[in-house]
């Protein structure tokens, strides 16, 4: 598997975690020291992986509700053992543009930082 394929696999695990409300998949996709940061209602929100996993688990599963999944890879750049991906996804009724920074470690490619921007309502 190429680095790009491995990163895309991690992106899918990340998306599935949110779509299925699965905290375990959050821990699979993220490095334990990762941060999740962005603005919700003009207010800066910062979370640890544990905080984000608890938030994801507290949401109703979009998959169980029969919602149509939306995930779009906007860009992916790999530089050695680091990478950055820009992805667009629908989650909790919003369309997000996420900047995901990755590192390659003993577990493979994991998300080390997530910056999120809400573009508007989900389509």
Overview features:
alpha+beta, six-stranded mixed beta sheet, 3 helices, 6 strands, 28% helix, globular
3D structure, described in words:
- 28% of the residues lie in helices and 50% in strands.
- It has helices at 3-20, 23-29, 49-58; strands spanning 30-40, 43-48, 71-79, 82-91, 94-105, 108-121.
- A hairpin with a 2-residue loop joins strand 5 and strand 6.
- The protein has a six-stranded mixed β-sheet with strand order 2-1-6-5-4-3.
Task: Give the arrangement of secondary structure elements.
Blueprint: H1 3-20, H2 23-29, E1 30-40, E2 43-48, H3 49-58, E3 71-79, E4 82-91, E5 94-105, E6 108-121
Parallel strand pairs: 1-6
Antiparallel strand pairs: 1-2, 3-4, 4-5, 5-6
Largest sheet: 6 strands, mixed
What gyration radius follows from the Cα positions, in whole Å?
A: 14 Å
Any low-confidence stretches, pLDDT <50, length ≥5? none
Helix % is 25-40%
Termini separation: 33 Å
Distinct helical segment count: 3
Shape: globular
Spatial arrangement of strands, main beta sheet: 2-1-6-5-4-3
Strand share of the residues?
over 45%
- Class based on secondary structure composition and strand pairing: alpha+beta
- Give the overall average pLDDT: 97
